[in-house]
Amino acid sequence: MKKAQVIIDRDFVVGEIDKRIYGSFIEHLGRAVYDGIYQPESEFADEQGFRKDTLALVKELNVPIVRYPGGNFVSSFYWEDSVGPKEERPARVDLAWKVIESNRFGLNEFCDWTKKAGSDVMMAMNFGTRGMEAALNLLEYCNFEGGTKYSELRKRHGYEKPHNIKTWCLGNEMDGPWQIGQKTAEEYAILAAQTGKAMKEMDPGIELVACGSSHSGMPTFGEWEARVLEEGYDVIDYISMHQYYGNPDDNTSGFLASNVDLDQFICNVIAICDYVKGKKHSNKTIHISLDEWNVWYHSNEQDKLLPKWVQKPHQLEDVYNFEDAMLVGSMLITILRHADRVKMACLAQLVNVIAPIMTSDRGAWRQTTYYPYLHAATYGHGTALQTIVKVPSYKSEKYGDVPYLDCVVVWNEAKEELVLFAVVKDLEEDMELSMDLKQFADFQVVSHEVMHHEDVKAVNTEEHPDTVVPTQCKSVYVENGILYGVLKHKSWNVIRLEKVRR
Ligand code: AHR
User: Fold this and answer.
1) Taking the mean position of all CA atoms in its chain, how far away is CA 133?
2) What's the pLDDT band for 71 if we cut at 50, 70, 90?
3) Nearest-angstrom CA–CA distance, 33 and 110
């Protein structure tokens, strides 16, 4: 059995955890909006046509912020088509996903939906077919109190009070050849800086996310971020990162190594942000919005067979297995280990489209990936502690050395709770764990939730929704101020400790 020693100290912190790292994403894509969150004809619909069963799961996840309306979709989206009386809204061609968008659900409905879900809005803008003018009009519609063309239009649409959306994305993946209106770094940098500047003139309270590279392997990675930040440093608050992983070669250990790459990607983006900061002698620090991350590959082949120019096809409907849930857990640990710089992150996406929640006409269910997301969003609050893990590693072909244990410890001072998140990547043997609790010596284990399945390909389906679910485990304990225990091979673990109340 391999041994893992976890080392923490209450005073050695990474940073405060921003709850918005547990954000998600709803794009007008496939059945995310239609049938996912909105289905007026459904037996589960509320008075606004929102699915109550989906809403209940979204509330269980406590999703703090939801990015909308895309994604690639946004780069040919006309927001004006999605507001006002529904019967007057036109159907439009969605060039990104080659479908028809009915506009029966639009930005006002989304704002209403997020209120019911208890989430904030992260609004993405069209920098593909449009640019500054449309962005300013949209901001005026959403955030301006009244007395102007677009704020009065909003009122006529039944929204007397502004939506006061704080977080705005200056386009989506503008470096990507697949993006409608792809731009060079130079073109995008100027457009983003000028638009951001004008937007902040109208509403200084907003915060802006500029597009970084679409993924770490983009040929312009690095130069793109540097150019965008050099041009817009004063108005940009966050640089975006997007990253998806897959296991098309069916190599579980190699696949589970992917968050080593995510960690390196985050380190590289931080280095570029700080390079520009240094060059500009600035006191301002740019933070990261990892506003698309997930596992995505299962649906790639079947999606090639889908018909074009239909409405709400079953697009990107990945069915997630147990190894996917382990990697999602590991990616969450990586995000937490960078809590000082990653201040927003969106699991892409939320419902039906590469999502933790699936729906059919008969109801909604939780995919395997739902659980690590739920656990982190529920218990991962407070301060991320520097977490040293002494454990053997294995070699992965793509990403080099991979520790057999991924781990981060979170200190929630308000609740006097210490939470350890861990993924065991040993596929064969259980692992011995020890952690000197030091300043937390009088803490005891209150729960240990474990997700484990012998079959890494096991999935949750509508018929069998509980094949892979967390269970309570009693294999860890505290003795003389040290946490000991045995963790299951291939497992996701959440160990919570609280101060003993005498
Ligand atoms: O989330 C699915 C797609 O992935 C998004 O539309 C796009 O931004 C990314 O490439």
Assistant:
1) 29
2) very high
3) 9
Does 292 qualify as catalytic in the annotation? yes
CB within 8 Å of 151: residues ≥ 6 apart: 140, 141, 144, 145, 162
How far apart are the C-alpha atoms of 477 and 474, rounded to whole Å?
8
Q: Which atom of ligand 1 is nearest to the CA of 178?
A: 10
Distance 71 CA to ligand 1 centre (A): 5
**Which ligand 1 atom is the nearest neighbour of the CA of 73?**
6
In the reported structure, the alpha carbon of residue 293 is separated from the centroid of ligand 1 by a whole-number distance in angstroms of 9
Radius of gyration of the chain (CA): 23
87 given a catalytic annotation: no
| Per-residue pLDDT tens digits for 354-391 | 999 999 999 999 999 999 999 999 999 999 999 999 99
Q: Which atom of ligand 1 lies closest to the CA of 354? A: 1
Q: Mutate which of 68, 126, 172 to test ligand 1's pocket (most atoms within 8 Å of Cβ)?
A: 172
pLDDT tens for 98-141 read: 999 999 999 999 999 999 999 999 999 999 999 999 999 999 99
Give CA–CA dist 121/166, Å, rounded.
8
Ligand 1 neighbour 71 (Cβ under 6 A): yes
How far CA 384 is from CA of 88, 342, 482, in Å, comes to: 50, 12, 20
Per-residue pLDDT, 208: 98
